[in-house]
Amino acid sequence: MVYSHSQVQLYKQCELRYAYKYIDRIPVPAEASLHLALGTSVHGALEFLYKEVQRLKVPSKESILEEYHSIRNEQITKIQEENKRSQLDQQQVADFAHMGVEYINWYYSTYHPFDQSIVMSTEEKVFPKLDDDIKFRWQIDRIDTQDDTFTIVDYKTSKRYPKDTDETFKDQINLYGRAIKQNYGSKFKKLIAKIVYLHLRNEIAREVTDEEMEKTRIKYSSIIQEIIKKTQRRSNGDKEAFKPVQWYRCDSCPFKMICPLFAHNYIHDEAVNLDDMKPTTIKAVIDEMAQMAYEIKRLKEQKDSYAKILGNYAAEKGYKRLYGNENKVIIGKSENYSPLPEKKNELESKLASENMLDDVVDIDRFKLTKKFKEHELDYDQYQDLVKKSVSITAQRPSKLKEKEIDEYMDIIGEE
Ligand code: SF4
Fold first, then answer.
1. Is the pLDDT of residue 414 over 70?
2. Which of 50, 146, 153, 341 could cross-link 117 (Cys pair, CB 3.0–4.6 Å)?
């Protein structure tokens, strides 16, 4: 099976969006944008540059810019065709065009005459193998060689460096490295990765080690195994195998109107006839339930605060019961003991030595439920030993955001 890095990234960001796009193959408008066009045009111009260098020529800056503008024009035409209904902001188009020109100007003056090393290939397609069945497909911007060293060169147009905690780029380079090692392992001793940040006018290089490549291979292989298992479950009818994960890109997600997190806000209200209630609508029930939940929360907080005041009063006076005009309360004391996390093992052996371990250790219901829910335990093999009960309830009411109200108004056509 062949996977791409963007597939895995999408899965890590939102499993359900991955499933809609790559398993259900629901068609979406091509994800063309000015950012993407900028990246494609600059990459294309630098590819042109190094193809010339491979022919032992040094192209002029004008010819590279010409190539850049020609690719960019094609990209803009494509975006315009895909967004027929909305006009592109011409100032934005000009700003992006200018950025690309600046990147090429900086690149040209920094690296001219482009003889830092020998260019072996540009935009080479590679298929790193993660294990016997799983392959990745990729295109490496450039591969250079010098003596016993190979260098992977990757151009980025991003406006900021990735955070040190963000492993995405590191993983990407480690997988490139794996592909190069699989293809040319006997031709080099050292492998360097060089990221050229065109906007930040800098390059960052590091050695790619076998240890790092192996670590990334194991990580990606296990993510892909997980995807394969969930794909199997989805094709067997388990619609919840891939979870929706709300994140900042939900707003631009092409599947928002069918995603179970948001779809209900895009349909008209529906009548519902509940047993002991007058006919009403789903939206009215939601709002009423939310009101009840807010009131219960407020009353609970108030009740807890009264309980504390009365408890303190009773403790001070030495009472075990307090009497109102129509009600009375019992003053209770609750004690809780929990193991110190760092002394858990010591506590277990001490209780075991006093034959009391079985009295206090119980199966943790929440942890057991989690194991079944996450399919680490197979329920079919345990159904004689555990009781399964499922209840589907509405929970955690919260106020709608203005944007959510507007989205619904758009659907029902109200101002
Ligand atoms: S709307 Fe958000 S949660 Fe739903 S599929 Fe798209 S990205 Fe995932």
1. no
2. 146
State the residue for tokens 């290939």. Answer: 121
Which pLDDT score, from 0 to 100, does residue 30 have? 57
Q: Angle CA(274)–CA(279)–CA(285) in degrees, nearest 5?
A: 65
Query: Residue with the nearest Cα to atom 4 of ligand 1?
Result: 259
Tell me the domain boundaries of the chain: 1-10+116-248, 32-114, 280-330, 341-381
Interval 321-353: pLDDT, tens: 999 999 999 998 888 888 898 988 898 889 888
> How does DSSP assign 329-378, residue by residue?
EE----------GGGHHHHHHHHHHTT-HHHH----HHHHHHHHHTTSS-
Count the Cβ atoms, other than its own, within 10 Å of residue 399.
Answer: 9
Find the residues whose C-beta lies inside 6 A of ligand 1.
14, 16-17, 244-246, 249-250, 253, 255-256, 259, 261-262
CB burial class (10 A; 0-12, 13-18, 19+) of residue 133?
Answer: exposed
Residue 85 has pLDDT above 70, yes or no: no
| Residues of the chain above pLDDT 70, percent | 97
* Dist CA 104 CA 59 (whole Å): 13
- Residue 67 near residue 125, CB atoms below 8 Å: no
